[in-house]
């Protein structure tokens, strides 16, 4: 569905993208993670056709993104709403620009107002909304024309738990309907909930790509045993096997046991630690 191959982008002395390649299939949610400055926002803006790469190619359903605008929905990291019109007017405007009319447009607006809990402020001007309300409105604008490719750049930054959950539920629904989704976040547990595959960006490239299980396999977990005289802690790639082995060899009574399997946060930290900015 989305094919980005060998993308490069330079801002003066900064190489923001450095040969970045990414494929996203139909119905796939890709969690795009990486250090600040890794190139995620630059990538998203190029995939949306809002920014031109210096080199490489992007195809959305085989088409250049600039000509595939009505198939793409983007919720940018920085809010981009018109201050003086209401949320409903935004949805009518962007739905209309993508060719939606009449009942079809009204139906999708009703659905989004409910799903993203916009009822309370849908008829208020965007400039008067709180930060979290603006984020929800921005997500609704990205979703209103049922895009085939959805680009969500930190959509839950600063959102309260209810808002976050509502957004995650809508994203899962859209993926079930076949949309391809790129979801940029620093909140890694969200990607587990979305059952997203993960793409790790670093210095303008994707340096790791796979399911969270595949990526976490590389990381060590930990086993901790507590004794009356102190504790013993060891890193391991197979915590349960290590525990069985340690218990069989223990010379003192064991007073407590803790197993820690690696999490997505460990993955993020390990890659961030390897970053050489
Ligand atoms: N318009 C611009 N002009 C100059 N440099 C830019 C511009 N946009 C991005 N950069 C630089 O390009 C690099 C990649 O930035 P980008 O915003 O794509 O990173 P990011 O991964 O989205 O970061 P974050 O997690 O902080 O949002 C950074 O070094 C940034 O300073």
UniProtKB/TrEMBL annotation:
Signal sequence, start to end: none
Stretches assigned to the ABC transporter domain: 2-228
Gene3D superfamilies linked to this entry: P-loop containing nucleotide triphosphate hydrolases
Keyword Nucleotide-binding applies: yes
Location in the cell: Cell membrane
Organism domain of life: Bacteria
Keywords from the UniProt entry: Antibiotic resistance, ATP-binding, Nucleotide-binding, Transport
InterPro entries: AAA+_ATPase, ABC_transporter-like_ATP-bd, ABC_transporter_ATP-binding, P-loop_NTPase
Stored PANTHER family: ABC TRANSPORTER ATP-BINDING PROTEIN, ABC TRANSPORTER ATP-BINDING PROTEIN NATA
Family membership noted in the UniProt record: Belongs to the ABC transporter superfamily.
Protein name (record): ABC-2 type transport system ATP-binding protein
